[in-house]
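Action item from last week, closing it out:
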Amino acid sequence: MNSPTPALPDVPAVPRRQLHIVAVARHRLGRVLERLAPEVAAQAEVSFVGHAFDDAVAAVRALHARAPIDAVVAAGASGEWLRQHLDLPVAIVEVRGFDLMRALAAARALSTRVGLVSFDGPSEHLAQLDTLFGMGIAQFSYRGPDDAPACVEALRAAGVQAVVAPGLVADLAEQAGIASVLMYSDDAVRQALQDAVHMARLGRAERARHERLGTILGQLQDGVVAVDLRQRIEALNPVMAELLGGSVAALVGRVLGDVEPVLDLGATLRMQDAPAEEVLQIGMRTLVVRRAPIVEGGEVTGALLVCRDPAVIQRADRHLRANQRQRGAPARYRIEAFAGEGIAARRVRELAARCAASDATVLITGESGTGKELVAQGIHTASRRATQPFLAVNCAALAESLLESELFGHEEGAFTGARRGGKTGLIEAAHTGTLFLDEIGDMPLALQTRLLRVLQEREVLRLGATAAVPVDLRVIAATHADLATQVERGLFRRDLYYRLAVLRIETPPLRDRGTDIARLASALMAPCRRPGRAGRAGGGRARRAAGAGRGLRLARQCARTREPGRAPAGLPRPPRAGRCAGPRAAAGDVPGVLAGPPRARARRPVEGGAPRGRAATCARGAAVGAGRPGPGLCAAGHQPRHAVAAPA
């Protein structure tokens, strides 16, 4: 069973203005219109103007300025005059053949000498009818209000005693003593009123469509103009009007090629094709222009031109980049993540905060594992680009050709295997954000030259492309190498070095951060420590790792420590100097050759026993003696402390 369709909520209708029709007539026709106007009162409001020709045009315009007029009703010469001088729809009271015959019959009843006055000249069909039937009808015509009195004098001179004429001539004939019959019947007047109502509705619907289109065009940030086959402007929005240096009302109807020759659409109308976008210079402005024909019913009826301001495109591009998902891992660390309360740590945080306030390029130097990328992410998150992309690439991890494609991108078909549709490089993808170049010292010299141009010109050229793309990005580079030495050796470009080292930060090694080692070790071991167990031996391992000056070693030692003094299962424990590796010996050790002090390795091995003058013991202190499972091994199967060569 179908569920009933839920009723739509009642939306209050917006009251619409009633149609406004103006009837232009005087004398007898005016009285007929006033008598029949109530028949259309339910459809439109009817106003009356008792003038003709120029006076009627002025009166209608004044009334239209006060209250918008949807249509006009008029007749005869005055109606044609209004059509020529008004931009409003005009419904003419037409004279039908049956109405004319009925009016002539009424005039013949008044006199045998009948005259017919019309605006558009004598009727040939009526002349033929008069010749066939001998009706004796004399035809006269007039062209305007100035001809009407002369026409009445001609009627009198011809001996016409009854005339069928429009309202003005009929009234003048009555004043001259000639009987008159109005040529317009009531049915013709009713039809003219209905035609006016229909025109008013169509005109209002058309204006509503234009207003809707104008509202839509007005909200566009691009300039849009539509022309007809003669390139006359039919519609345009305010943005386009501003580009053309005029108002919408002043530009409509003008030829676009005359207003701005560079925007001529003649070729588009002839080729009937939509060419690709092109960049044009209009005055002092650079615009991206696209032309396209307008096709209706399979035929070209005009052309459309769209002008885009590059600044608007760039703003939209920044908005999209800010809201789309960023490529790569986003920046996760803040400057405060560089932990430590020592002088060196505080100095790094202070310099990073200062660098974040600037857009200059930053070079971060320091040994591996001292937190260079952490500092780079902290600078990004504290800068004005924090909401924009942060993209990182290791310059030492990729081959030269691969690194070039990854950094600069490529066009479709740039090389064999190029991605279809091309590829956006990291430099272009980091637009408005930050690009982090790790291990910059290992970048090939050829790519250093291309990177230098990006830093100088702030534009990037894809592989296989011919036009460079402007980019707005900040570059942060990091290296563990001594770039100054590499510059002297010719391994790194001097000009690129100066471009990168505008601002410099050096991350200190752990050996220079003695007061922070315990705190860092505790923070690193916290996720691995079992609840309720204190780290008794972690500090010793941390100090030994820090002695080498490498944070990576400290992190490794802390990650291997699940509980004090014991390495996690499955992870090899590095042998201490002078002791056997035991069953935890690292994979790859050469059998029979043990790691130990140089003095121990230099002694001549004693086959099957310990060195002369010294007892042989294994790593756990067990004597190497009888009953051992193999030569040089203790009873537990462990290797001795000192280097012993396996027997041949």
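Closing note: The chain has a mean pLDDT of 76.
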